[in-house]
Amino acid sequence: MITVESIKEKLSNVTYPGFTKSIVEFGFVKDIAYENDMAMIFVDITSSAKEVEDQIRADITKELSVLGVSNVQITINKPKAPVEQSNSQSGKNIAPQVKNFIMVSSGKGGVGKSTTSVNLAIALAMQGKKVGLLDADIYGPNIPRMMGLEHTEPEIIGGKVMPFKAYGIEVMSMGSLVEEGAALVWRGAMVQKAIQQLLQDILWSELDCLVIDMPPGTGDAQLTLAQSVPVAAGVNVTTPQHVALDDSRRSLEMFDKLHIPVAGIIENMSGFVCPSCNTESDIFGSGTCDELAEQYNTKVLASIPIEPSIRVGGDEGKPVAYFYPDSVTGKKYQEAAKALWENIEKSQEEGEIGNDSIQPNLPVGVSACSSEGQAYKAEQEKAKAEQNGGGCCGGGHCS
Question: Model pTM?
Answer without folding.
Answer: 0.73
